[in-house]
Amino acid sequence: MGALALVAAAIVFGLGALGAGIGNGLIVGRTVEGISRQPELRGTLQTTMFIGVALVEALPVISLVLAFMFFAKA
Amino acid sequence: MIDNLSAHLRTVTRLTFFFLSVCFICWAVFPAQQAWWGGLVVGTVASLVNALHLAWKVDSIGARAAGGGVGRPSLGFFTRACIGLLAVVIATRTFDFRVEGVAMGLFVAQLATLILGFWTICRRGRMQSLDERGENN
C-alpha cells in the first residue's frame, strides 16, 4: 500500500505538471505572438491569457495537494 | 466590459472576499464542521495570493512582448505550487484543518476567474450584436 501510494503521488503530480506545461506553453506563445503583432490589443489579450493560465494551472496545484495526501498516507 | 487586467483582478478579488465572508459565517454557524470551513479559508487565501502573483507575471510578460521590460520572463509556477503546499502544511500542521477543504479552496479564485470570463464573453457578444443593429448609436 505504501509503495503504491508513492507511485500514485508521482503519477498524479507528474501528469498534472506535464499537461500544465503544454497548455501554458501554447497559451503564452500565442499571446506573445498576438501582442507582438497588435500591441494595442495588449489589455484584451492579457486578460484572456490570465483566464487561460489560471484555469490551466488550477489542475497541477490541486494535483500537488492530492500528491501530498497520497504521500502522507504512504 | 472587462478588458483591463486590473479591473478583472479587482472583480476576482471582490468575489473571493465574498466567498471568504461566507466561509467565516458558516464557521460561526456550524461549529461541528469548523475543520472543513477552516481548510476552505486557508485554501481560498492561498488561491487569492496565487491569482495576484499570476496577474503580476502575466502583466510583466505582456510588457516584455510589447517591447518594454527587462529580465528573463517566466510564469512562476514553482512559486504558486509552493504557496499551495504551504497552505496545506499550515492547515494540517498548525491548525488541524481538513486537507480536502484546502484542496477545494485552492480552486476558488480560478473558478471566479472562469465565471467572470464567461460572463465577459457573453456580454461582449451581446454588445457587438447591439452595435451591428445600430441600437447603441
TrEMBL record, chain A:
The keyword Phosphoprotein does not apply. Residues 8-70 form the V-ATPase proteolipid subunit C-like domain. The chain crosses the membrane at residues 49-72. Its main location: membrane. It is a multi-pass membrane protein. The record marks E57 as: Reversibly protonated during proton transport. Keywords: ATP synthesis, Cell membrane, CF(0), Hydrogen ion transport, Ion transport, Lipid-binding, Membrane, Transmembrane, Transmembrane helix, Transport. It is found in: Cell membrane; Membrane. Key component of the F(0) channel; it plays a direct role in translocation across the membrane. A homomeric c-ring of between 10-14 subunits forms the central stalk rotor element with the F(1) delta and epsilon subunits. Belongs to the ATPase C chain family. This is ATP synthase subunit c. It comes from Paenibacillus terricola. The gene is atpE.
From TrEMBL, chain B:
Keywords: Cell membrane, Membrane, Transmembrane, Transmembrane helix. It is found in: Cell membrane. This is ATP synthase subunit I. Its main location: membrane. It is a multi-pass membrane protein. InterPro entries: ATP_synth_I. The chain crosses the membrane at residues 12-30, 36-56, 77-95, 101-122.
